[in-house]
Amino acid sequence: xxxxxxxxxxxxxxxxxxxxxxxxxxxxxxxxxxxxxxxxxxxxxxxxxxxxxxxxxxxxxxxxxxxxxxxxxxxxxxxxxxxxxxxxxxxxxxxxxxxxxxxxxxxxxxxxxxxxxxxxxxxxxxxxxxxxxxxxxxxxxxxxxxxxxxxxxxxxxxxxxxxxxxxxxxxxxxxxxxxxxxxxxxxxxxxxxxxxxxxxxxxxx
Length: 205
Description:
- By secondary structure, the protein is of the alpha+beta class.
- It folds into 2 domains: 3-59, GTP Cyclohydrolase I, Chain A, domain 1 (Orthogonal Bundle); 73-204, GTP cyclohydrolase I, C-terminal domain/NADPH-dependent 7-cyano-7-deazaguanine reductase, N-terminal domain (GTP Cyclohydrolase I, domain 2), CATH 3.30.1130.
- Helices cover 40% and strands 23% of the residues.
- It has 9 helices and 7 strands, in the order ααααββββαβαβαβαα.
- It has helices spanning 3-6, 22-36, 48-59, 67-70, 120-131, 137-152, 166-169, 188-191, 193-204, and strands at residues 74-75, 85-96, 102-112, 117-118, 134-135, 156-165, 179-187.
- The strands form 2 sheets. A 5-stranded mixed sheet has the order 5-2-3-6-7, sandwiched between helices. A two-stranded antiparallel sheet has the order 1-4.
- The radius of gyration is 20 Å and the shape is elongated.
- Mean pLDDT is 90; it is low at 1-8.
């Protein structure tokens, strides 16, 4: 099955959004090229609309994936382990919803299990799903924490994202390498300062 044949007619995230056809998407790219001042029919740009649409399908593949389904397979047998589970330095590439320009950085995730634990790769997968959507870094931080909280029902969740936004580096104020840090804490990570401090120490090494 081709990539286009697998695309749903409505958005899996918002059923009120009808997804345009591939031809409509490619025409939109041609319009933007012409608006920028170039000729979309010249040799170097002739296949650009096709490439951009393919890239968008990859950049924003998170809209077709369900983070709760990823976290649904849990297990209880952990040999008596009852401490923090933390993934540090998960690389991420996302796009800010304001300018559709990349922000690139790392995510750090921890949770304190109650009864259910999940394979560690699934936590990284949740980051990837939300990163491959358009949103703000603040929203993405809350979404990751909320998904883990809802699916695993742990004693607490801690999430930190540290990213550089190209919308600040390439346009506007044009200040490169400015790092934006966002955090979200639930449960014991929110109510217990010592647990929050442990998370921060583990993340910063």
